[in-house]
């Protein structure tokens, strides 16, 4: 299981950006099923990963913000009864190993047999920030350090590669969590050179894009520690930021390649399933932001590739799926008994036939009672105060025109609203940070450790 932090659709196989250069992720996509419409359960690392590893949605657990890995099972009655994905495989005879960022920080204690660790933070860091200097965020960009060997992701890739060279007398479940392209967008110069600044295409950006969204939408997506697109344009940094993100994606792609090469050269090449996912997407200037933590397409959508041991080869599906679906899908693929506590859906029907009938939507939650519903055509957002947004991706893939108040779409909104949970669990008092003052206040009210 290959996990990529803050990766949006800027990979070659997804045609998300014309300058994307990701030959190794593309290679995996050519061998398996690429889910073009996959979405995170939450647009933030902590709750997204907790959802994947427990098989439970944020609205069930109350984990809407970041949480310490060892507090997940103390977060609610539901999580107390949960079995982590890795634990479930171990209970069924698997050897389990992990390295890097798998849960939010490291891994929950005892959740894997072997853990190769991860560095603190997202370094290495230069002595001082290169461009953006706000202590509340890792955001910064520019070439650093000199060599790939100085990057933690390089070490993580080789740790897993070494595990694949070993003889195992049990089936194994291995997870490798990469840090890039999480900010800071610092990678060696050669990856910046791969994306010459003068050739970089800027993303679609609409001035006053936020004019037709409700006030609550503006409040919960206000992240003052990050630069705005207006600032980046006025200061001549927009193209530099895009270059930095593209460079970071290409670097982590090379680390994915290290693991894929090791698997292909191992004795396990023909009987090992491979899955790659990002924990959520990321705005690179769209909607006035360089951030995640929104309910729009750019922050919820992320790559998902699944290659079974006996793959049919390249397949692409546009059916809407959730990362919550990973737990039951991997269990089914490996022939293990179903875990009845799982809330996700088994995706193996789409692995068998990517065009099969699929009458489901993907749900993303950002704080209690704030939900986005995504189908093949529409995105419907409803906030805790009843405010709404609706976008028709057939006509408006950039989500520039909010149709929520158009009477012609009333019945469509009603149908999409059926996907929204009837009840949301209260905020867990184990959450400690959400990246937004509006939600940090709610964690404090819940008895958590919100930072304001």
From TrEMBL:
GO cellular component annotations of the record: cytoplasm
InterPro entries for this protein: Alkaline_phosphatase_core_sf, IDS, Sulfatase_CS, Sulfatase_N
Keyword annotations: Calcium, Hydrolase, Metal-binding, Signal
Domain of life: Bacteria
Segments forming domain Sulfatase N-terminal: 2-335
Family: Belongs to the sulfatase family.
Originating species: Catenovulum maritimum
A Pfam family that the UniProt record links to this protein: Sulfatase
Name under which the protein is recorded: Sulfatase
Reported cofactor(s): Ca(2+)
PROSITE patterns reported in the protein's UniProt record: SULFATASE_1, SULFATASE_2
SUPFAM superfamilies: Alkaline phosphatase-like
Keyword Hydrolase attributed: yes
Gene Ontology molecular function: iduronate-2-sulfatase activity; metal ion binding
């Amino acid at each position: 299981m290959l996990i990529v932090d803050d990766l949006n659709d800027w990979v070659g196989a997804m045609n998300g950006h014309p300058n994307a250069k990701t030959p190794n992720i593309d290679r995996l996509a050519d061998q398996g099923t690429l889910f073009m419409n996959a979405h995170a359960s939450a647009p933030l690392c902590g709750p997204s990963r907790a959802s994947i590893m427990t098989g439970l949605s944020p609205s069930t657990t109350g984990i809407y913000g970041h949480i310490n890995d060892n507090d997940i099972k103390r977060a609610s009655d539901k999580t107390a009864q949960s079995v982590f994905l890795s634990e479930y495989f171990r209970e069924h005879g698997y050897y389990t190993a992990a390295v890097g960022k798998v849960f939010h920080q490291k891994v929950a204690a005892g959740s894997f047999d072997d853990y190769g660790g991860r560095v603190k933070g997202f370094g290495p860091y230069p002595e001082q920030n290169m461009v953006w200097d706000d202590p509340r965020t890792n955001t910064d960009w520019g070439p650093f350090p000199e060599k790939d060997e100085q990057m933690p992701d390089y070490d993580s890739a080789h740790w897993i590669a070494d595990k694949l060279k070993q003889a195992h007398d049990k089936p194994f479940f291995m997870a490798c969590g990469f840090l890039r392209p999480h900010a800071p967008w610092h990678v060696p110069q050669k990856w910046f050179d791969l994306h010459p600044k003068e050739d970089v295409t800027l993303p679609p950006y609409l001035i006053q894009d936020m004019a037709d969204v409700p006030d609550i939408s503006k409040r919960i997506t206000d992240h003052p520690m990050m630069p705005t697109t207006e600032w980046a344009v006025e200061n001549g940094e927009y193209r530099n930021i895009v270059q930095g993100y593209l460079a970071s994606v290409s670097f982590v792609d090379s680390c994915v390649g290290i693991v894929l090469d090791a698997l292909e050269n191992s004795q396990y090449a023909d009987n090992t399933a491979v899955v790659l996912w990002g924990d959520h997407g990321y705005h690179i200037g769209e909607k006035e932001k360089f951030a995640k933590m929104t309910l729009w397409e750019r922050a919820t959508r992320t790559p998902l590739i699944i290659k079974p041991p006996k793959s049919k080869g390249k397949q692409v599906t546009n059916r809407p799926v959730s990362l919550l679906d990973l737990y039951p899908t991997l269990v089914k693929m490996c022939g293990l008994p179903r875990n009845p506590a799982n809330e996700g859906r088994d995706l193996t029907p789409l692995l068998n036939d990517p065009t099969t009938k699929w009458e489901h939507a993907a749900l993303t939650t950002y704080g209690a009672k704030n939900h986005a519903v995504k189908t093949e055509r529409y995105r419907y957002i409803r906030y805790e105060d009843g405010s709404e947004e609706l976008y028709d991706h057939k006509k408006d893939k950039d989500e520039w025109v909010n149709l929520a108040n158009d009477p012609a779409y009333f019945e469509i909104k009603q149908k999409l609203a059926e996907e929204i949970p009837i009840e949301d669990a209260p905020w867990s008092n184990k959450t400690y940070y959400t990246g937004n003052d509006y939600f940090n206040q709610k964690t404090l009210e819940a008895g958590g450790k919100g930072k304001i």
